[in-house]
Amino acid sequence: MIKRDVMIYTRYERFWHWSQAVLIFTLFFTGLGIHGTHSLLKFGQAVTIHTYAAYALMGLWVFTTFWNFTTGQWRQYLFKKGILKVIRFYAYGILVGEPHPYKKSLQRKQNALQSLAYMTFMVIIGPALWLTGLLYLFYNEWAGQPWSGDALWLVAVLHTVAAFAMGTFVIIHIYMTTTGKTPLHYVKTMITGYDKVELSEVEEAYLAETKTVDMR
Ligand code: HEM
Predict the structure, then answer these.
(1) What residues does ligand 1 touch, defined as CB less than 6 Å away?
(2) Within-domain flag for 28
(3) Cα of 68 to ligand 1 centre, how many Å?
(4) Residue 216 placed within a domain
(5) Which of 212, 203, 211, 210 shows the shortest CA–CA distance to 4?
(6) Does residue 42 sit within a domain?
């Protein structure tokens, strides 16, 4: 096995990651303004920014879902064995200096816990936000129904619950990014795209020949 600096996050992957991060921060901040948690923005301003950012995020999700399927990257998110070992590492092993139970490879960029967390993000938290968000946005279309008052209350509660689930995800996610070789190692990887990955001689020769992945 040879350790090489390999581009594991392509330009599009880094673009969608950071633009998604900016949009989610914007949505959380303006959403809390709408909710009444802070009054740093006027209500109308908060609603306008929230609506534009929401359309941008939904557009980004559509493109990224298309990208995930056309590049085969969706496989990275599938369930993997060994999740208990990863949980044990973050709960205990990390405190006593044990090595990480999982080695990154080009085919397996994420460990089992990461895949489960991102899958939850993509199939539960994300859809809960855009589904309830769209119902909220188009309230005028169904406002005349006899049940619309109760339904609006439910939509608002579900949207807020999903927003706090998203906030929790973001906090844990940011903590996790500090647990690499140095606190900023993973952040740098998501900026430059490069990380050290173990390659077999065959893999290295194949990548050097086909140039399907950039190496430094
Ligand atoms: C993805 C698509 C999304 C859409 C279409 C959407 C849409 C909306 C709409 C229409 C409102 C109500 C505005 C009003 O009262 O006029 C709202 C409120 C809110 N949104 Fe979003 N949103 C989205 C994503 C998010 C995200 C990602 C977050 C946070 C991470 C978030 C957090 C909130 C919060 C906290 C409120 C206030 C809820 C309340 O107190 O009733 N939203 N959203």
Answers:
(1) 24, 27-28, 31-32, 34-35, 47, 50, 54, 57-58, 129-130, 133-134, 136-137, 156, 159-160, 163, 166
(2) yes
(3) 26
(4) no
(5) 203
(6) yes
pLDDT in tens, 25-53: 999 999 999 999 999 999 999 999 999 99
Query: 27, 39, 122, 171: which to mutate for ligand 1, most atoms within 8 A of CB?
Result: 27
CB 86 within 8 A of CB 101: yes
Q: What is the mean pLDDT of the chain?
A: 92
Structural domain boundaries, residue 188: 2-7+11-210
**Domain harbouring 174, CATH code:** 1.20.950.20
Count of domains for the chain = 1
pLDDT in tens, 146-162: 999 999 999 999 999 99
Q: Give CA–CA dist 122/38, Å, rounded.
A: 28
What's CA 215's distance to the chain center, in Å? 25
